[in-house]
């Protein structure tokens, strides 16, 4: 039976370490959190981020904008926050309403305040091993693996999904940890054959319970990034947990696996803002 990788516990550890740093180093950190519209899932995520800020001692400054906010006025707000020296991090909750160009908004956030790690400069820095903000979900997965004692160096890592937020930065981080990395996607031929090579299988394809035991090598570590509601309104991931658990050596549950790590790593990035900005804010 696989060991369960407990994201709730590990995220609590990370948040406690952040809280301690704020207290001991007397850090004074402010995160601007922008939500446009009232998508219920976004409201839950934003609420979790604000709660975590409060716990750690980070000041969160909320901006709740109406659904019909224009792209120009959102860009103006971001530019104003870029110039505001009392703001260390800027988070624009995604998705944005369809009339707003998300890429343009992300590009407008100062890389020195890009605590989500989505700006092209942050992504570029990651890919050439330079300092910069790292996307929170993949950074959280590295912490889950390391803090659960999973060896990464020299291992075969297969990532299913090539999104800008998870799959691609995940590949860069696993390379940085000296894994041999394969990224699969919807055009990958013989997906099962490829995923079966994995010592560490990271799944972010956005299809409920898609990965069954036929995709998994005996003894693999399986990380499930998906989050969906099934027919009974219960949360499930991209991995068929009950089917895969008996063949894996370790596995993340949904909920309580990768999800809580995203918020914890955002908090960590907020504290790093002072260092990464390097006076260039
Ligand atoms: N929407 C879903 N996940 C995220 C995230 O990590 N950051 C932001 N800004 N929006 C999201």
Set down the secondary structure blueprint:
Layout: E1 3-4, H1 7-25, E2 30-36, H2 40-56, E3 59-65, H3 71-83, E4 89-92, H4 102-108, H5 120-127, H6 136-147, E5 156-160, H7 167-176, E6 180-184, H8 191-195, E7 200-203, E8 221-224, E9 228-229, E10 235-236, H9 241-244, E11 250-251, H10 259-277
Parallel strand pairs: 1-11, 2-3, 2-4, 5-6, 5-7, 7-8, 8-11
Antiparallel strand pairs: 9-10
Helix pairs in contact: 1-10, 2-10, 6-7, 6-10
The structure holds guanine (GUN).
Description:
It contains ten helices and eleven strands. A six-stranded parallel β-sheet has the order 1-11-8-7-5-6. The protein has a three-stranded parallel β-sheet with strand order 3-2-4, with helices on both faces. Helix 2 crosses helix 10 and helix 6 crosses helix 7. The chain is globular, with a radius of gyration of 19 Å. The structure holds guanine (GUN). Guanine binds next to strand 4.
Mean pLDDT metric: 96
Anisotropy-based shape:
globular
Bound molecules: guanine
Q: How large is the count of helical segments?
A: 10
The radius of gyration over CA amounts to 19 Å
Structural class: alpha/beta
- SSE ordering: EHEHEHEHHHEHEHEEEEHEH
SS strand fraction: 15-25%
- Poorly predicted runs: none
- Estimate the helix proportion, in percent: 40-55%
Report the strand count. 11
Strand adjacency order, main sheet: 1-11-8-7-5-6
Largest sheet: 6 strands, parallel
Termini gap: 49 Å
């Amino acid at each position: 039976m696989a060991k369960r990788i407990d994201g709730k516990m590990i995220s609590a550890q990370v948040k406690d370490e952040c809280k301690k740093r704020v207290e001991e180093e007397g850090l004074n950190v402010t995160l601007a959190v922008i939500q446009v519209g009232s998508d219920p899932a976004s409201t839950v995520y934003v609420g979790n981020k604000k709660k975590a800020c409060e716990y750690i001692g980070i000041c969160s400054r909320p901006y709740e904008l109406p659904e019909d906010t224009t792209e120009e006025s959102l860009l103006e707000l971001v530019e104003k926050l870029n110039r505001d020296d009392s703001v260390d991090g800027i988070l624009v909750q995604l998705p944005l309403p369809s009339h707003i160009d998300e890429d343009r908004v992300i590009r407008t956030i100062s890389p020195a305040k890009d605590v989500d790690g989505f700006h092209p400069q942050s992504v570029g820095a990651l890919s050439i091993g330079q300092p910069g903000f790292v996307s929170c979900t993949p950074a959280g997965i590295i912490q889950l693996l390391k803090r659960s004692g999973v060896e990464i160096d020299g291992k075969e890592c297969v990532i299913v999904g090539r999104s800008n937020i998870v799959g691609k930065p995940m590949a860069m981080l696993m390379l940085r940890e000296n894994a041999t990395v394969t990224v699969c996607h919807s055009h990958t031929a013989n997906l099962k054959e490829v995923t079966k090579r994995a010592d560490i299988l990271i799944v972010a394809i956005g299809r409920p319970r898609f990965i069954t035991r036929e995709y998994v090598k005996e003894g693999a570590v399986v990380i499930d990034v998906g989050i969906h509601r099934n027919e009974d309104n219960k949360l499930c991931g991209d991995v068929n947990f009950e089917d895969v658990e008996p063949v894996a050596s370790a596995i993340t549950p949904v909920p309580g696996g990768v999800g809580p790590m995203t918020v914890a790593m955002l908090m960590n990035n907020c504290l790093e803002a002072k260092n990464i900005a390097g006076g260039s804010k």
